[in-house]
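Problem: given the chain below (344 residues), write out its structure.
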Amino acid sequence: MFDKKIDAYMIQSPANRSYFTGIDTSFGVALLTESEKVFFTDFRYENYARKELADFTVVIVTYSELYVSIDKELKRLNVKSVGYEENYLTVGEFKDIKAALEGYQLKPASDILAQKRIIKTEAEIAKIENSQRIAEKALTKILPLIKPGVTEREVSAELMFEMIRLGADTLAFDNIVSFGENSADPHHHPSDKKLEKNDLILIDFGARTAGYCSDMTRTFTLGSPADELKAVHGIVSEAQAYALKHIKAGMTGKEADSLAREYIRANGYVKEFGHSLGHGVGIEIHENPRLGVSSETVLQTGMVVTVEPGIYIEGLGGVRIEDLVVVQDDGVLNLTNFNKNLYL
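Solution.
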């Protein structure tokens, strides 16, 4: 990170603060130099920060004093150039920083910081896998509650309760629970729609535990859906299996995406698969890299990504099947153990 171009990184986004400090706070800035680390926060987190950040200098400030205090530390550390998170800051926030830190070279650093997070350590992978186990246990627990007459909202609430009860700190993202034709909406919000016999049931969800997320999707039914949807489930399942078999380090995100996309296209569906094959998962539910039609990112060992092909037919329904995997030199390590059966 320190190659003579940037003397200090000013880290403000919650995700990067969590990654570089190991703690979660609603207010704070981490200042990293090659020789020292400083963490600015307010009185609410003073005891927490001093206890957890033994290798940081902890500075307690109010919001109005923040940039004055940062300027003081930058001068003490003889900093000339400061890397900032251009992809996180608003225009107004950047104007405030530029005015407060006049005289320093301000350099965009979002990509540099993202690259530090893109390959996961064994400890990070273990945390992601733990979140995945919690999510799977929660889904297993609520399956007996899924019966005709239950609503999307009720299933989502029960799933949330079980994940928290089983040890999740929070949800990785808002649950997606959709029945019948609602499953054709990839990011449907749970509603009061009641499950009817023969409806497809699509559930996309994840847990966040110890700062790290999981993500999975399953599509199933209690009855016998339309013949086209049965066929679509088979196509999506086969497309995912093919991608999982062939994704490995060294290929680009575009190449990984094409493994499933071309299979789906060959079976007559093009516009019905409108999103990317996958995305990175870690502290945030959507991180680099992206497995998409324009992604030139080269996959590397240790990246954690989703593999989630889908086909969505408006007015009829949709199917998505999603696993969470670790990219390896010779393939992938699948962190998802839940079955992919169409019929419950």
